[in-house]
């Protein structure tokens, strides 16, 4: 039974050791922010941190991940307050969103190792493919995230962390039948 720490919690997967980490995260742990894009390491949609390094989870087996620390997009920051997440929204560097989690994970690892990367260093460190072509905005977002992480800039419109089911239920307005509904019985 391969075991590791995922998003700060010890986990043992009842799966074959040769299973790609990607499928254990998505299918067994229900951490679906890690996306399946190509299955051969080309696209980066499945990027996670393994012992702090950005790696493609489709290329790592459970056996190779055993005993290691894995962080997925869900574990990066539960309230979406990580500077990369905030900057991606502020710079409108998200289009369809499919590749976004992998890009965020790659960018977060880059900024952990290089607090002020140049545009060329960003381009070299982010191997992710994006069919929507957000690359210029992605570079701006990572540069901005670096400034935020260094406390040289703030982002006033951080993404909302979402609302609880209880709050959502309270915020749903009462819907009264309109004129069309009252005439439907005629």
Automatic annotation (TrEMBL):
PROSITE patterns: 2FE2S_FER_1, 2FE2S_FER_2. Residues 159-186 are annotated as: Disordered. Residues 2-76 form the 2Fe-2S ferredoxin-type domain. Transmembrane segments: none annotated. It comes from the Bacteria. Pfam families: Fer2 (PF00111), Fer2_2 (PF01799). Keywords: 2Fe-2S, Iron, Iron-sulfur, Metal-binding, Oxidoreductase. The keyword Metal-binding applies. InterPro entries: 2Fe-2S-bd, 2Fe-2S-bd_dom_sf, 2Fe-2S_ferredoxin-like_sf, 2Fe-2S_ferredoxin-type, 2Fe2S_fd_BS, Beta-grasp_dom_sf, Diverse_Oxidoreductases. This is (2Fe-2S)-binding protein. It comes from Qipengyuania spongiae.
């Amino acid at each position: 039974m391969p075991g590791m720490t995922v998003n700060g919690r010890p986990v043992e997967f009842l799966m074959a050791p040769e299973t790609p980490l990607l499928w254990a995260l998505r299918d067994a742990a229900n951490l679906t922010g890690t996306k399946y894009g190509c299955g051969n390491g080309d696209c980066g949609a499945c990027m996670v941190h393994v012992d702090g390094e950005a790696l493609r989870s489709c290329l790592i087996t459970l056996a190779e991940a055993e005993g290691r620390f894995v962080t997925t997009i869900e574990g990066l920051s539960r309230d979406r307050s990580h500077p990369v997440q905030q900057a991606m929204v502020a710079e409108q560097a998200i289009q369809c969103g499919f590749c976004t989690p992998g890009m965020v994970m790659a960018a977060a690892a880059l900024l952990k190792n290089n607090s002020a990367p140049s545009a060329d260093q960003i381009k070299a460190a982010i191997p992710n493919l994006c069919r929507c072509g957000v690359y210029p905005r992605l570079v701006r977002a990572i540069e901005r995230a670096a400034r935020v992480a260094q406390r040289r800039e703030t982002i006033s419109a951080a993404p909302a962390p979402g609302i609880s089911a209880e709050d959502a239920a309270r915020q749903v307005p009462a819907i009264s039948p309109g004129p069309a509904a009252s005439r439907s019985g005629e």
